[in-house]
């Protein structure tokens, strides 16, 4: 696999949004004003829940990560709940000092009734497993599972990077009570991906380095 070093990977649960589920995302895109906000929207194919970041400085680091993923496959599968983890993506929330100075706008993962309470414990178990293996390094923040829609890192105005954006109207229009992005989506894959989405405008995706299929127990 061709990868430039140093590089930054991340461990995540991909959220597969099929063609029939893309209508809410298209409506969101069309609601965005021309400019930095619209330019920053990468599309539904980048949807995922990040578990942790994985820095790799050289090919040996990458090989160590891939071998660890393979070696721990059975441990991960054993921890995955018998009933598949199923979520809906609802509404919006934000990271930032206040709505008018948001850094990230994200959709909120809400577990279905059948799997309620399984998502975060499973993700915390996997993160700790990779921390103990020396793969994930930075765990200074509590695990806050979210699906990013807009990130200020992808916004520029007059050639300069924006520091924040006003999410007030988006939070009102696409609220937790009134807006659903996807329903009953099964999270049955654990992937290591490369940071930096690629692909067509508003239809971008992350390159997957390795994936474990999380089949339910018999």
Automatic annotation (TrEMBL):
It comes from the Eukaryota. InterPro entries: AKAP7-like_phosphoesterase (IPR019510), ASCC1 (IPR009210), Cyclic_Pdiesterase (IPR009097). This is A-kinase anchor protein 7-like phosphoesterase domain-containing protein. It holds the Pfam family AKAP7_NLS. GO terms for cellular component: nucleus. It comes from Schizosaccharomyces japonicus (strain yFS275 / FY16936) (Fission yeast). The lineage of its organism: Eukaryota, Fungi, Dikarya, Ascomycota, Taphrinomycotina. Residues 10-213 form the A-kinase anchor protein 7-like phosphoesterase domain. One of its GO terms (biological process) is DNA alkylation repair.
